[in-house]
Description:
This protein is an alpha/beta fold. It contains 18 helices and 20 strands. The strands form three sheets. The chain has an eight-stranded parallel beta sheet. A six-stranded mixed beta sheet has the order 10-9-11-13-14-12. Strands 17-16-15-18-19-20 form a six-stranded parallel beta sheet, with helices on both faces. Strand 6 (143-148), helix 6 (153-165) and strand 7 (172-175) form a beta-alpha-beta unit. Helix 6 runs parallel beside helix 10 (267-276) and helix 12 (324-336) packs across helix 17. The longest helix is centred in the last third of the chain and has 17 residues, at 463-479. The protein is elongated. The chain starts with a strand and ends with a helix. The structure holds 2'-monophosphoadenosine-5'-diphosphate (ATR). Residues 351-356, 374-376, 379, 412-415, 425 line the site of 2'-monophosphoadenosine-5'-diphosphate.
Amino acid sequence: MGSSRLCLTVAEKTIEEDVKQVQKFAQHIDMVELRADFLETKEYGSIPSFPKVVRFPSILTMRSRAHGGHFLGSERERQRMIRMALGAGFAFIDREEGTEDPRLDQQIEDSGARIIRSFHDFEGVPDDLAARILKLLKRKTELPKATVMPGNTGDLLKIAQCAQALRNQQKILLGMGDFGLLTRLLAPVFDSYLSYCSPPGMETAPGHLDPELLDTLFRFREIDARTEIFAVIGNPIKHSISPQIHNKGYADLGLNAVYVPVLVDSLRDFFQLAEILRMGGFSVTIPHKQGVLDFLTERDESVTQIGACNTVIRRQNGWEGKNTDVSGFLAPLRKVFAGEIPAGLKATVIGAGGAARAVVYALVKNRFDVLILNRTEERAQHLARDFRCRWGGYTAEGITSMRGFSELIVQTTSVGMVPNTQADLLSDFVFTGDEIVYELVYKPHETKFLKRAAKAGCRIIHGLDMLYEQAYDQFFLFTGREYPQALRAKNNGS
Ligand code: ATR
């Protein structure tokens, strides 16, 4: 695995604005790409001044319309622009596949600049990606670049396999879009010479991240051959806050580890990818919590009983499944009871889906007497049978029986979540103020249901508390280290 550089792509209308962007992000980057095709034509004369002003190794890219860029002039004009910039100190000149010109290419080489020989596939990932990259090379000194558009996890796997096959070939290899994010975050692991990033709001390719995020949260410039890789997999996954929680913990403890979000539409392909990248473990979220069970070689009792798993850890001969949803759910409850949860308490669980299953398991294990209410009563009945509980629907009868099971009320459905924040499944239930009310929805921070409970004087537990606690427990399982206290305190305050 080689080292990789963080390259800021600037694409403003004037050189002055481009330079300002570079200065703004200077502390986070190693290189700069000047997308000269975005410049106003009156700025072309200033292009040669760029490398000396920014004082970073610079790439000059003058992309034509035909190659997905903005330069409108002829190929001859484009070549003239490039010639004008030779000798100005650009470290690289980006030249697309198919635009080879022996005279110009020789002039570039003679000027001391290197040619990046690039090809872009905005539609997908070619099956012969490795061969295509090798074919790009026209001169020994050239740096081949392939930017492709993975449309699924299988395509991402193809890129990883290509990186593995070309391990000893210096190259730029990146995936665009949501499925390509991993290649940009882990460019040092994919053996890509660099990863491009853009100022926020100025992305020149789908999926460009901002340099500060890459440098400070994902610690891109510290990733090396020994960095242990962890992930969260889901679909969608963009809005997961787990990377924030885990990466901050690694940084605080000085651990050589990184935690990345991975959009996964095929678990089979992802598990192959996880092998190639030698991942240490990963968190699992919707919709994969049940599906991962097919790929586990070991599982703990909770995974078997619940039929779902949110934590997968690499073991010597495969993958072990665990469940921090259970411990994460219980931790805030223990706090409410200042330690041990008394036996024999009466609880109602609202909902009978996957989340409810983990909650019912945790409660029954802790000797709660549980009533399950659900819209689809058969589902409540089914879950109740598995864990020997009572069950009902949101009927007058169900709400009445809730009265006898209301020391703790846990809301596990998605009702009340953004964007339908005015929804409240139990609007007919009037709180006395003696109930402990636990909501699993964390967006918004306080649902209408929880607000109503708080107003009645109930002790309430927010969904975010469970989210953090299950992440802390995962952090421990992944790293063997406790999540830093100082960061916990900060999260509690948020
Ligand atoms: P999760 O893993 O998040 O629990 P799930 O397994 O799909 O997701 O379960 C969703 C739960 O939310 C179920 O209890 C579901 O009720 P049904 O079993 O009747 O479908 C409940 N739910 C979702 N939307 C609901 C709605 N609009 N009204 C009432 N219950 C709802």
